[in-house]
Structures
1.
Amino acid sequence: MEKIKMTTPLVEMDGDEMTRILWQMIKDELLTPFIDLKTEYYDLGLEERNRTDDQVTIDSANATKKYGVAVKCATITPNAARMKEYNLKEMWKSPNGTIRAMLDGTVFRTPIAVKGIEPNVKTWKKPITIARHAYGDVYKATEMKIPGAGKAELVYTAEDGTEVRKLIHNFTGAGIIQGQHNLDASIESFAHSCFKYALDTHQELWFATKDTISKKYDHTFKDIFQEIYDTQYKEAFEKAGISYFYTLIDDAVARVMKSEGGFIWACKNYDGDVMSDMISSAFGSLAMMTSVLVSPDGYYEYEAAHGTVQRHYYKHLKGEETSTNSVATIFAWTGALRKRGELDGLPELSAFADKLEKACLTTIESGKMTKDLALITTIENPVVLNSQDFIKAIRGELEKML
Ligand code: NAP
Ligand code: MG
């Protein structure tokens, strides 16, 4: 068979530990035998980030702006232990944080549905995608402990010196306060990313806040979304036969539990943090979840939702067998290849991505899986494969389809 051609390179961001091992296996077994793989390679492994003073991360984000589509391996976010382990010059920031800040996007996470791994919520027939706003609110808040009686106020000082004050509370005893903020520009780009992604994936979009209680703060989110929808997306949504639905967060939570799934749920930063953990565990596992950062300028960065699976890597280093699930990392590649195929008018590349995803699902549905899935599957007597053999089994299914 002739290899499938590519015209524009993917931005390839390599990573750390067990996922770095899987990364190479996926390329060797599932990609390069079938595709004339074109990538611009950036090594975001911690050693290279340290050697380049993290310039490589910045370069990879700039390359994403240039080419439009990136695929990223999981990477270590350094902490004190990693400082020592890798003898780091500095406690480098999370690459995801750096890339997100440069591309200004929203993170979309979707469970990968497969027969034999059933959602805990009976009514869920299709995956629910969480779209999490990744800027501000409680994550950028300033907090204070109030020691005793006294007055706390919100004060805004404009550049010309004029002040606006609002009483928070006249304390008669000890207490706590917190100041949160967000930016219209960030909320706007969040909204654009969500509307574009809904059109792209042909799904309904839900959005919810607590605007009845938070009449200025949360209401601003609601208003910005509505304004952007009405003026820029309504027509396209109607044409595509999908809808935008706003409701109160309490109502959204209640409806999600009774829904069939198959929609995008846009969440404010905190709601998205909490609800994505609920959605992913109710659907099965972090290793069965796709994750894509979509920027309002139309750049896409695909990754796995899980980390570098450190515990498995140390076993691997000791020469012990591992059974690490590569599905989320494979889906990062297929997501990126499919998008590249769409943008470059290469239907055979997109079709390959579809087939590779199907091969992953067929492998699992035939009872061959990694240990994490074997523990939760409804399939009887599953065959537990090691990391390498699982990928080889997927290749077997893929070859049948090609
Ligand atoms: P993790 O890599 O997500 O793994 C936590 C545990 O979840 C594993 O020990 C394993 O459980 C299970 N698991 C996760 N992915 C799996 C897979 N593909 N197959 C099978 N089991 C899987 O989180 P972590 O160990 O807390 O973090 C390790 C490193 O990843 C950290 O340095 C962190 O900074 C980084 N991280 C990176 C990203 C990213 O780049 N997007 C995200 C999160 C964390 P068992 O051990 O029970 O088998
Ligand atoms: Mg969380």
Note: The pocket of magnesium ion (ligand 2) is lined by residues 273, 277 (CB under 6 Å).
2.
Amino acid sequence: MRFFIDTANLNEIREINNLGILDGVTTNPSLMAKEGITGKNNIFAHYKAICQIVEEGDISAEVLATDYVGMVREGEELADIDENIVVKVPMTKDGIRAIHHFTNNGIRTNCTLIFSAAQALIAAKAGASYVSPFVGRLDDISTDGLDLIQKINDIFLNYDYDTEILAASLRHPMHVLRCAEIGAHVVTAPAKVFLDLFNHPLTDAGLKKFIEDGQKLNLR
Ligand code: G3P
């Protein structure tokens, strides 16, 4: 399973990338705005900086337009920034049309704001490289977000779609582990979620004891 970090913060991307466990980055307009990035030149330069940190990973860059023509124009510009850019497109009729266009023109896509298996099926049929079901936001409205990951996985296994499941809006380590059990291809989460995966109190206690006993060995 691949790990993508869900942030536009360069320091967080560097931190997880330096651990050697990062396979890509997902951003969205809210995450870019959180970093205070404004203006087309600055936004494009920021995406380029992300691509330079994660040299071989896919970087999702989201279109802001909501109409087909605007999405195609923006998506083609975003794809020109770097070969690792994946154009992120919202799950709408215009978005699906744009994904179909991008697929036919060799531009990879991530269909975002997926909240049902039906939407994931439509995106796969249009040729999306990734579908992004939002687990946490479904949990927020008392609907089992992980159940959606399971359903999409079951459906995709019945056919030979190239579309990969990119489980998004993950909020804690158990979301990641359950996605791994189900077989999601990719998870995207904030840095804290990945850092929390490292933790176990028995590791801390065990290491403390090894250090104490190691000092008795008098290696010098
Ligand atoms: O990748 C989608 C993600 O950014 C949404 O996460 O926590 O805002 O629901 P969240």
Note: The chain has eleven helices and eight strands.
